[in-house]
Write a structure and sequence with these properties.
Oligomer: single chain
Helix content: 25-40%
Largest sheet: 7 strands, mixed
Shape: flat
Number of strands: 30
């Protein structure tokens, strides 16, 4: 793959995205026109706003001065919106660049998104020209941007002036303009926002460039990022590094996650490592926090904007509620999310017992009962005690009834905010009432330290992401010299390496493989089995049969020469019956390996992220259970260990119900070594697979393998 294009220097985008002067090129007198709407959305901006339209030169349009051309403007605009049809865009870009402008947003559509080849060429030329001029572009086919700090509504969407929330908190970046603006509208209900940009076609700047700019905004504490696709998704890794360096979080949603486009594959790996899994693995490697639906975006980003790292070592969550049912529901979702619900420490329990009626519960979940409404002091005592308990990194407070009176729910939110601030622990408000808006939730949104969630499930998933984000971050691995040499040794022109050739390559890379012999006849098979030692396994040796079990091509636990002879005949008959056109070179003879946990190691080439490595439950069950973990190759031994521990089948490796434990460190080392080998193959790799990798207490061994390379 070509080298990764570096992120655009955020400082080079300041004039475009945080301007002090502004121009709208292509403003009409029609109040509903895109240019006119933009001018109206700039009403509260304290810098100059200039209109450009030769028809109205020397007049005012929508309360702003209008000029005949960009050349006639009284100064070089920091930023501009080009509200012209597509044929006039390039000339406007040239004029603005010549004037000394700082960049422009392009509303016009009809470029590459049309699937017309000539329009894609036109868009490419526009982007190339902008980069040659050093003139950054937002769009084309975008709806602009919003800088809430300076009251800049550089967008044709109506009514930006209605967004009156305090500045700060969350920045929004979206390829979809409509979805980006939909998120920004949370500022109408008090949700603290700082900036919103839309990339559209990303003719020049993509969402990675835009998010990098927002990360450098002091008021921005987290970014909500909506991605459809990228020219090069590896740029996400640089974005993640920047976010990590600045101590800020990026919450990401990938649109278009269906598997319809996944190609049919020769090996199990291709069907297991789909495009959705690759994007998720890429986000995770980059340190971005992926959410599964649009509803989660602002809740999660808002939480990270308000919350620092956990102050405790565990994943303990305390639940405090006036409703037993709400407490049970919260506990269910906490358990589903893999969170811990430790019981209160003795000192905490003593406070709870003194404050809670005997028909409540001084445990976790802590049921204060409805009596708390008549005794605010007892509520504060219980909440303070739970916050002080070192077992709890966060406190969840489900709200079950919304009393909008200033002394009721809104005041409760204002009471909780300093409690959270003083303790250094987040308080999460689980908003259960179907009375979704009003003074209560607005008070929670406006609070600087408490976070509002309208879904218990999303709240607990956010806490899970919080713990994961601040936990261990396995580093990328390296390609060992033996792996690089083994990859280089595979002759050019090789396309498919079946079991024997593939395992030979794996062995050269330092992976443990089973000892075997090739045999063209039954007599040679008996001789090989005798040399290896009984019992043995026979497998059909054919460059045309990928899945041997489907043609009866695997015969197990053969105890003597007679069994080997009979098995050889069965394999030949099965191959003739089920694959009559396949070339049959004979059989592979292997010593029968002791039983163990069977894993699959796989690799494939992803068009966005490059080589991906997969590990999961193997053998014939691989495609049935699809219990796999995916990462970008190469992975370190620590990264491989994290992949193994993420599997549902991991208990099988760790001595499930008294079974023998596997040498997990040896397995992790094998995964890391395999990942380095496939990464070293680079663009030659299409697919590679070890299935099964038999794992036992004394190590692991590759029993079968396959590789598919581009010629």
């Amino acid at each position: 793959m070509p080298a990764v294009e570096p992120l655009r220097d955020p400082n080079s985008l300041t004039r475009l995205l945080a301007p002090r002067s502004f121009a709208v090129v292509g403003v009409s007198a029609e109040a509903t026109g895109f240019g006119a709407r933009t001018v109206q959305n700039m009403r509260d901006f304290d810098g100059p706003v200039w209109c450009v339209n030769p028809k109205y030169a020397g007049q005012e349009l929508h309360g702003r001065p209008c000029y005949a051309s960009v050349a006639d403007l009284p100064g070089a605009p920091d930023s501009a919106v080009i509200a012209l049809p597509r044929p006039g865009v390039l000339a406007a870009v040239e004029a603005l660049a010549q004037k000394g402008g700082g960049g422009a947003a392009i509303y016009a559509s009809g470029y590459g998104e049309t699937d017309l080849p000539e329009r894609a060429v036109e868009e490419q030329a526009l982007g190339d020209r902008a980069r040659a001029l050093g003139f950054p572009l937002l769009g084309a086919n975008c709806l602009g941007f919003v800088d809430h700090r300076h009251r800049i509504g550089a967008t044709f969407m109506p009514d930006y002036v209605k967004m009156t929330a305090p500045v700060g908190g969350v920045g929004v970046v979206s390829q979809s303009g409509a979805l980006g603006y939909a998120l920004m509208q949370a500022a109408e209900r008090g949700f603290a926002m700082c900036h919103m940009t839309t990339a559209g076609n990303a003719t020049d700047l993509d969402v990675c460039d835009l998010a990098a700019f927002q990360l450098t905004i002091p008021e921005c504490r987290s970014v909500a990022l909506v991605v459809e696709g990228l020219r090069d998704a590896r740029r996400l890794f640089a974005l993640g590094d920047l976010a990590r360096d600045l101590g800020k979080a990026i919450v990401v949603l990938k649109l278009g996650r269906g598997e319809i486009g996944a190609k049919a594959a020769m090996s199990h790996t291709g069907s297991l490592a789909g495009s959705t899994a690759a994007w998720s693995a890429g986000f995770k490697r980059a340190g971005l926090l992926e959410v599964e639906d649009f509803d989660s975006m602002l809740e999660t980003a808002g939480f990270f904007a308000k919350s620092g790292p956990p102050r405790t070592k565990g994943r303990g969550v305390g639940i405090v509620t006036p409703s037993g049912g709400a407490g049970i529901m919260s506990a269910d979702h906490a358990e589903f999310a893999g969170l811990e619900l430790p019981q209160p420490a003795p000192a905490t329990e003593k406070v709870l017992r003194a404050a809670i009626p005997d028909f409540g519960s001084p445990r976790n979940p802590c049921d204060l009962t409805a009596q708390v409404a008549t005794n605010p002091k007892s509520f504060e005592e219980c909440m303070d005690a739970m916050l002080a308990d070192e077992q709890y990194a966060a406190i969840v407070f489900p709200v079950v009834y919304h009393n909008p009176a200033p002394t009721a729910t809104p005041q409760r939110m204002r009471t909780l905010n300093p409690m959270s601030a003083n303790s250094g622990k987040p308080i999460c408000i689980g908003w259960i009432p179907e009375s979704l808006e009003g003074a209560g939730p607005e008070a929670a949104d406006a609070a600087s330290h408490i976070s509002l969630f309208r879904s218990t499930r999303r709240m607990m998933n956010t806490l899970r992401l919080w713990f994961d984000h601040h936990g261990a971050k396995p580093a990328a691995g390296a390609i060992e010299a033996s792996a690089a040499a083994a990859a280089k040794a595979i002759p050019a022109g090789e396309s498919t390496l079946m079991e024997a050739a593939a395992k030979s390559a794996f062995a050269a890379a330092g992976l443990p493989v089973v000892d075997e012999r090739r045999a063209a006849t039954a007599g040679e098979a008996v001789a090989a089995a005798t040399a290896l030692g009984f019992p043995v396994v026979l497998k059909v040796d054919s460059p045309d049969i990928a899945h041997k079990t489907e043609v009866g091509g695997v015969q197990l636990n053969l105890a003597d020469a007679a069994a080997v002879t009979a098995a050889f005949a069965r394999i030949m008959e099965g191959a003739r019956t089920h694959a009559p056109k396949a070339r049959i070179d004979g059989v592979l003879v292997q010593r029968m390996e002791a039983r163990g946990v069977e894993l699959i190691l796989g690799a494939s080439r992803d068009p966005q992220f490059g080589t991906m490595v997969l590990v999961g439950l193997g053998g014939v069950q691989a495609e049935l259970w699809k219990d796999v973990a995916l990462d970008v190759a190469p992975v370190s031994a620590e990264g491989a260990m994290a992949m193994l521990k993420s599997l549902k089948a991991f208990p099988l490796l760790d001595g499930f119900r008294g079974s023998a434990k596997v040498d997990i460190e040896a397995v992790a080392a094998a995964v890391a070594r395999f990942s380095g080998f496939v990464a070293a193959l680079g663009e030659r790799l299409e697919e590679a697979e070890i299935n099964p990798l038999v794992c036992r207490g004394n190590g692991c061994v590759a029993v079968d393998g396959l590789m598919k390379l581009s010629s």
